[in-house]
Structures are given as structure tokens and as C-alpha cells.
Amino acid sequence: MRAVILPGKKEVQVVDRPKPVPGDGQVLVRMRASAICRSDMSLYYGGKPLVGGEAAKTGTIIPGHEPAGDVVEIGPGVRGLQPGDRVAVYLAIGCGHCTYCLSGYLSLCSQWKCVGFDVDGGDADYMVVPAQNCLKLPDPMSYETGALLLDNMGTQYHAQKTLGVSGNDTLAIFGLGPMGSAGVLIAKARGARVIAVDVLDSRLEMAKELGADVVINSTKEDAVEVLRELTHGEGVDKAIDSSGNPAAQNAALDSVRKMGSVALIGETSATTINPSEQMIRKLLKVYGIWIHPIWMFEEIANFVIDHNIPVDRYITHRFNIEQAAEAFRLFDERVTDKAVFVWD
Fold it and tell me: How many domains does the chain have?
């Protein structure tokens, strides 16, 4: 089979690998869609991976933690799946027995492994995965949409459910890459007034196309000042930072009204804040949001279908696996919004 590996220093190789064989409790999935995520760039650049252990540092793991495809073979002991099932592959593999695994938060397991970082992911013709990680796609849902629900749309849904975003809210979203684009779609479906903040006009234009009510280029305007003007001097009800940029994280904290709430999604190693002024004296609620629990996938899928959310509208580029070098380069250069490998 053909597979992508990322040795580091922006090198991309498409190599031949043996087709994997499912073991006990595992299934073989033929890929139909596998999305590129910003966290994949840590493998693309090399050095310290964003997640994962020693295996992620070797440059030999097949990336791709947002995959969807068809079950083609099941290993011994598998129940509830059969060849022909259409599935998305949940990215966190846990021990299955600890408190976090039993509550569905597999990524909080002390022994967890990440698909595409610790074990081979979906940027290949086939992948082997534990059967419990295979989440059946509803009949009306495309493989591409199913793949984006695993991390991109799923994380935003998790964030906005945690914040309780509703039609009563004005929500500011900082960072309009693929994660922020997903946030606009989810927030509009929940009925919120959405204000999108970014530094690139192209991304703000996409946000408008997806339904954002107002867009702000923070290189041209003081985003916090504009957000206060748009909310009668009070500040927005809720904010989400999808960028991981320290300036945007601070702007999110500054722009929210007293007793408001903020969700931080974008990852960064260090940010300097003023807890007294930005949080304590505002009675602000601040949430760190990571991977949604595995049981939430069905809820997310139903939400997308019931609200007819056009997830594929922010997929701007599709590639075959042989075009992997171009795909990662364009994604790195922020030419694309969401980019997806597809198979016929």
C-alpha cells in the first residue's frame, strides 16, 4: 500500500508499506478520506511533536488523525462491526479500564496513544485500529464530513457545548483557520451572533461565507475595542481562541464581559496573562478544551445532520496520496483552509 511519512524538516515521503493485518480486537479500514490538521505540522517540521511519545519522534509513523473509510476485514474477537461498515476512526486509544477511559475521555488516560503520532494513522491506503475506535457514519454523511467531526468540528462542538453557546449570545472566535471555520458553522447552527477575528483577510472572507455576522482584521483594528463597541461597551458574552497565539488569547480574555466565559482550544507553550484583571475581578470562567469524549461523536453527527451544516464548504483543497508533498506545503503556507486526502 502507499503511505505518507514525515521525516522532519518539511520533508514528505510517499512510500510502499505492507498492508497491515488486524489482530485481536482490531479491524482493517480502507481509507476514503483523511484530513490534515495543524498539529500535523509538528511532525512536518520535526523536533518535538505536539502530542505522542518516542514513536512520534522517529519520522516513520504514518500521520493522519482525522480518517474515515470502510471496514474491509475484522480480527478475532470483534463484535458489532463487519466488512462494508462506513466508519470514522477516533484518534485516542486508551487502556480501556481507567476512570477516564470508562467516562469516554480516552485522551486523558495516562497510557493513551494518539493515532497518527504514536501509531500509524490514516494518510495511507489502509490502517489497522482497535474496533472500539471505529465510529459508524450515519447513512447521509460523507466520508469527508465524518473525518472532520473527529477533531475539527468535534472540538468546536465540545467547546461550544461546554460554554453553553446559544441564540442569546454574542460569540467572538479568534483564529479563523480550519478550527475557527468549524466554530463559525457550529455557532450559527446554535443561533449565536458570531464575530470572527483574524489577521488574514482571506480567512475572514471565508468566515463571512460560512455565516459570520461581523469580521475583524486585528492587524488593522483594535479587536478588543471594536468588540466592545459592538456590544454596547460590555464585551462579548463568550469567546473561543482557536489560534494558540498569545496575543489572541489575551484579546479573548479582555474582550469578554464580566461573568462571561472563554474557551481556549489553540495550543501554545507559554502565554503571559493578568489573572486579577482578566479573570478574577471579572468572575470569568475559562475552559481548556481538547479532544471530545468518544461517546459525543454520535451527538455531534446528529447535530450536523439535523441542522444541515455544510461541513464541506471549508474544505478548500483535496489531494490524492501521491500529492502529499504539495498538500503539506500548501497547508503549511496557509494557502488552504481544510485540506483532505481522498480515495476513489
Answer: 2
